Structures are given as C-alpha cells and as structure tokens.
C-alpha cells in the first residue's frame, strides 16, 4: 500500500494489486484505514468480477490482510493466503516495484497541490499493462487477452476532425503515452542499477547459528532513532523459512513476527578476548518466595487507563490511571528491556525515584491550559499530536508530570472548552500563523 498522500475526496492511499502470472497491475485509490471487509470487497469487484477466482494472495502483515475474517474467507474460497516476512517488502517484490513505478508516474503528471492523483491511476495502470515485461517478454495485456489494446495513433487520420478540442485531446493522449513510456523505462533501469549496487552475496545460516538483527524497521524503546543502535542481538537461528528468510529466537516481550529476510541479518562473530565477553546475567533475588530480578535503571514511563471497581449505586465501573516503567535489568542486554507495572516494582523504589529526578524539568510543554474547580484536581492540556490521521491531546490531572495520558478529541468531550482555549494559547505563544482558524497543525507522533 502506498501511503502518505495528500487526501483527495476522503482517499489517502493506493492499494496496488499485481497478477504474478501476467504482471498486470490494478491500482485502487483507498483509505489507509482500509478494513478486512473493504479489502474483501475490492477482491470481489476488481479481481474476481473481471478476471476470475484467485489462487494465492501475497500481502504484507497489515491487520486488514491477516485478520481471522480473511483467513476464514480464504479457506472457504480455497485461496491460499501468504503474508510477507517482517520488514521485508521484497518478499512481495513485484508489488514493491509496481509501487515505485506508480509513484514515479504520479510525480510527472499530478498537479502542484498533489490533489488529483486518483484521476491518473487508470492511465498509470494502462501504461504499465501495455509495456513488454522483462520476465515474460510480453505485455500483461497480451498475456491476459492475447492482444494489445489500440492506443492513440502515431499519424493523423485522413478524416477531418470536426472540433479543435478533439485534435487537442488526441495530441494530449499521444504526448502522455510517449512521456510515460520513456519515464517508466528510465525508472526500471534506475531501480535495477540501485538494486545491483546494494545486493550482497547471500549467507546460508543453520539452526543454532547466532546473528545480529538490523534495527532499521524495529521500534525500540529509545527516544530518537537517529542515535539508536544499528543492530541488536545476538539471536539464535531456529529454522529457515522459504528461500531467504529465517526464524529467530526473540525475547517473549517482543510481540513481533520472528521471521526476517536474510538481508536484515549479519553473522555473529564471538569475541576474541575474554574481556570482550558479556558477563552472564545474575540469578534473581528471592523476595517473599518469589524471584525478583535486580533493576539497574528505569529508562522510560507511560500511563494508561484501566477499569476499576463497579459502583454499586450507579452500576458503572470506575477508571484508574496506572503507570508502567521500561526497565533495564542488571546484567541483561537491551533486548530484554521490558515494560513493567509499577505494582510489580516494589523492590525498585530507589530506581524509580532516581528516574523521576532525571525527568524533572525535561518535559517540553508546547502550551499549557488549566481547568480547576472545587471537586476535581487541576486538569492540564500539555501538548497535541496527530495519530492515525486524528488529533490527540496530552492531558494531565494533578500537579506531577507522571500521570499523563494521550486522548483523541472524541474521548474527552467534557474538555471541549479546554481544547479550544489550548489552541488559542498556542496561537499567542507561537505566532499568528497558528490557531484553529488558520489550520494549526499539531506535532506528529514520535517527531
């Protein structure tokens, strides 16, 4: 899926379907929030209704493509569903190449404001499907239908055209065809050149081998990606998947698919000298007959809402705010860092206190708005950001900087007046170009 596009008529993404046999493409304008049901409707209307029933579907590991609903649907229709390995779009390399071609095509023809990209998708598909593919020696149109479609003729017809507009439209179509053919040919050559430069000889690993894992696509608990480690591990190879992917033994706290392409792995070379080796981790302490691992440091924290007890009079459940800490365990590597409930860290109060001291005064406040009354603790709106296309607000209740949480606007309707005041405080603080009337844009999550 191609994302990050300027929204047009409620659409902000392109879903590209590639026929592995003919190499034909079907680009569909859609939303980034496409659901499993929406994907099933696209398969019905754009593939089955025009080309017949599918045999295999290869996709990324997006939730809309691997949901229980789709698994059951594929099974019922006798379709084999395969998901690509983690963080390696080349597993579905044909779609990745098609995505790049479409992006290059759109860069050439869309308007300056980039708001008409859906209108160019049919022509982008036509130009791709009418070009000879290097793998088949034929165009996708010819493979599917046994012939190539007619295009704008190279020479003028002998018939007199009745209107100048007809001649102008014909000339425009011919120009678009010629420019696109040249652009796509050049794009294919550039992609091949770049791939050949980066491709390295494959290394064959055996079960039990140790490897480093590239962190390019991993979301580790570090403040900034720029200064994060380039690789983590070493991890043990469990087994080989397919031709070029391996399953790794990852920590249980890493809730990600453990299969990675070989391009993300590097062989682990054992240290030459004894002083280069990491000491074995210490055994846990036994406190109240329970094993407790020693906390070396607290790295980060977050708060979340949990359901409390049920009120006997109203029948409603109360809502409590709890704090989780990201813990660095003594003697263990960063791959073992774990989010742990505060209630499970009674033996680490000193480490928590040290952490809280380090973050005092380090919270960046873009604009602060306060609401108080005689019943509730002071309420602050500290900051805002965009997530999944919607705006979230950082809300704090109380006077410490620990019990904060992010909420979408629809989750805090009782703070609507406070949100309005927040925008105008931001406007006064950062200049007249900001503010709800002028398109104030909150910071991106993680920015």
From TrEMBL:
GO terms for molecular function: RNA binding. Keywords: RNA-binding. InterPro entries: Chromo-like_dom_sf, Chromo/chromo_shadow_dom, Chromo_domain, Integrase_cat-core, Retrovirus_Pol_polyprotein, RNaseH-like_sf, RNaseH_sf, SH3_Tf2-1. GO terms for biological process: chromatin remodeling; DNA integration. Pfam families: Chromo, SH3_Tf2-1. Gene3D superfamilies: 2.40.50.40, Ribonuclease H-like superfamily/Ribonuclease H. The keyword RNA-binding applies. Residues 1-148 form the Integrase catalytic domain. One of its GO terms (cellular component) is nucleus. Coiled coil: none annotated. The keyword Acetylation does not apply. CDD domains: CD_CSD. Residues 293-357 form the Chromo domain. This is Integrase catalytic domain-containing protein. It comes from Armillaria ostoyae.
């Amino acid at each position: 899926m191609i994302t990050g596009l300027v929204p047009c008529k409620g659409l902000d993404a392109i879903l590209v379907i590639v026929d592995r046999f003919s190499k034909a493409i079907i680009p569909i304008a859609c939303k980034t929030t496409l659901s499993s049901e929406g994907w099933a409707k696209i398969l019905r209307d754009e593939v089955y209704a025009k080309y017949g029933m599918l045999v295999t579907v290869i996709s990324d590991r997006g939730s809309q493509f691997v949901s229980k609903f789709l698994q059951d649907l594929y099974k019922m229709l006798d379709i084999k569903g395969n998901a690509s390995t983690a963080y390696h779009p080349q597993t579905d390399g044909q779609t990745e190449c098609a995505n790049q071609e479409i992006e290059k095509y759109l860069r050439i023809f869309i308007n300056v404001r980039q708001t008409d990209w859906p209108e160019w998708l049919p022509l982008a598909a036509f130009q791709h499907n009418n070009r000879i593919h290097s793998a088949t020696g034929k165009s996708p149109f010819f493979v599917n239908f046994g012939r190539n479609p007619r295009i704008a003729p190279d020479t003028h017809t002998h018939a007199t055209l009745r209107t100048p507009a007809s001649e102008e439209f014909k000339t425009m179509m011919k120009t678009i065809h010629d420019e696109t053919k040249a652009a796509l040919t050049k794009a294919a050559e550039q992609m091949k050149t770049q791939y050949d430069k980066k491709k390295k000889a494959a290394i064959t690993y055996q079960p039990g081998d140790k490897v480093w894992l590239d962190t390019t696509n991993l979301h580790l608990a570090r403040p900034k990606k720029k200064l994060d480690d380039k690789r983590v591990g070493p991890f043990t190879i469990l087994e080989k998947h397919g031709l070029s992917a391996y399953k790794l033994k990852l920590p249980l706290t890493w809730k990600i698919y453990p299969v990675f392409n070989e391009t993300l792995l590097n062989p682990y070379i054992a240290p030459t000298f004894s002083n280069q080796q990491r000491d074995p981790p210490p055994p846990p302490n036994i406190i109240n007959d329970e094993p407790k691992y020693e906390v070396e440091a607290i790295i980060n924290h977050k708060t979340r809402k949990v359901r409390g007890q049920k009120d006997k009079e109203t029948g409603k459940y109360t809502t409590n705010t709890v704090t989780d800490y990201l813990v660095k365990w003594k003697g263990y590597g960063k791959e073992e860092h774990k989010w742990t409930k505060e209630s499970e860290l009674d033996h680490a109060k000193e480490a928590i206190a040290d952490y809280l001291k380090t973050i005092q005064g380090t919270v960046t406040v873009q604009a602060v708005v306060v609401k108080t009354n005689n019943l509730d603790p002071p309420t602050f709106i500290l900051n805002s950001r965009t997530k999944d296309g919607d705006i979230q607000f950082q809300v704090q209740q109380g006077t410490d900087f620990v019990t904060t949480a992010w909420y979408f606007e629809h989750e805090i309707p009782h703070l609507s007046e406070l949100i309005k005041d927040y925008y105008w405080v931001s406007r006064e603080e950062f200049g007249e170009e900001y503010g709800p009337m002028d398109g104030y844009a909150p910071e991106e999550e993680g920015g």
